[in-house]
Automatic annotation (TrEMBL):
A single GO cellular-component term on record: cytoplasm
Reported cofactor(s): Zn(2+)
Entry-linked Pfam families: ADH_N, ADH_zinc_N
Record SMART domains: PKS_ER (SM00829)
Protein name (database record): Rhodanese domain-containing protein
First and last residue of the signal peptide: none
Regions annotated as coiled coil: none
Keywords recorded for this protein, A-Z: Metal-binding, NAD, Oxidoreductase, Zinc
Length: 354
């Protein structure tokens, strides 16, 4: 496989906070020590890209920045010192794109907690571009038989959902409640949880979303607006409550609800970013010995594991397919809460592995 690499490429960049993303012509980056250049075929679009565009995160991105962090493509150039990849390898390029590798957190497998953490499309140039330079230690091979578009959302949505479940420490047969189950991340969490042998209660709101959950065999779908969530969970768990709840819904109320659904010594994992603070009754918390913990993306190992579930057919990943040029309308739909499931933008239509 041979690649002719042009001097410039198209990249979707935020040039000014709060303004539409521009597709601009920029130089193709050169891979440095330990890095590879990837010719991207497509990239997923995530709500974080909306935050980067609008600058409403606690740490706004340094502009201009190329957005995107769910890229898939082929290695087309290898920097000095890279041993684990060869030209033509199909890789996915996730949001967790780098860490120092030698601090205590990194050595303990917690690179996402490293002070030198790099998140692509936010802190370093992202994957909504024709080419991407990535640290080879943070790229993951896409298993044979997995389509590019199926692999892309695993880079962020899939691995984040999978990691949150791992953090819950649950074993097969135990019960997990997933709040925001019909959303982009929740949908993956439901599938990973079922594949892990957990009993799953999926909570969301509205008839359309509840109906969409019913396609998952074995799930108990609950409408937060019309059903008695606590009553349903208690009746399914012999009156004790779930072993854990994972909150993807971006409201404080969802986490407060989750605290009422877990049993004594249960765990609530918070993933969704809510604008308002959570109210917690500390007496109940202490007496019921409940753990609340946060979870953020996943490591390279988590991503490999999450990808294996897809390769083995234990989960499905079928995002909506759009054009690269439609990036602004994709972002607007995400911002307006109109997006259904995940969306990928096709960058190089002729080179996709489907
Ligand atoms: Zn993301
Ligand atoms: Zn580190």
């Amino acid at each position: 496989m041979e690649f002719v690499i042009p001097p410039t490429m198209r990249a979707a960049q935020v040039l000014e906070q709060g303004k539409p993303v521009q597709i601009v012509e920029v130089p193709v980056p050169e891979p440095g020590n330990g890095e590879v250049l990837v010719k991207l075929t497509l990239s997923g679009v995530c709500y974080t890209d909306v935050h980067v565009r609008d600058g409403d995160l606690a740490f706004p991105a340094q502009l201009p920045i190329t957005i995107g962090h769910e890229g898939v493509g082929r290695v087309c150039k290898i920097g000095p010192g890279v041993k684990q990849f060869k030209i033509g390898d199909r890789v996915c390029c996730p949001c967790f794109a780098g860490s120092c590798g030698h601090c205590t957190d990194c050595l303990e497998g917690w690179g996402v907690a490293c002070t030198q953490l790099k998140l692509s499309g936010f802190m370093t140039p992202g994957t909504l571009a024709e080419y991407y330079v990535g640290d080879a230690n943070f790229l993951v091979l896409v298993p044979d038989g997995v389509k590019d578009e199926s692999a892309a959302p695993i880079c962020c949505a899939g691995v984040t959902a999978y990691k949150a479940l791992k953090q819950s420490g649950l074993r097969a047969g135990q019960t997990v409640v997933i709040l925001g189950a019909a959303g982009g991340l929740g949908n993956y969490a439901v599938q990973y949880a079922l594949a892990m042998g957990l009993k799953v209660v999926g909570i969301d709101k509205g008839a359309e979303k509840i109906e969409s959950l019913k396609k998952f065999e074995g799930i108990t779908a609950v409408d937060v607006e019309t059903d008695d969530c606590r009553g349903k969970v208690l009746s399914l768990t012999g009156g004790l409550g779930a072993h854990a709840a994972i909150v993807f819904a971006s409201t404080a109320k969802a986490t407060e609800n989750a605290l009422t659904l877990v049993r004594t010594r249960g765990t609530v994992i918070v993933v969704g970013l809510a604008p308002d603070p959570i109210k917690v009754d500390t007496v109940t918390l202490a007496l019921r010995m409940i753990t609340i913990r946060g979870s953020l993306v996943g490591t390279v190992t988590d991503l490999r594991e999450a990808m294996d579930f897809l390769a083995e057919g234990k989960i499905a990943s079928r995002p909506q397919i759009r054009k690269f040029e439609e990036v602004n309308s994709i972002l607007d739909e995400l911002a307006a809460g109109k997006a259904i499931g995940r969306t990928v933008a096709i960058i190089s239509p002729d080179e996709i592995s489907s």
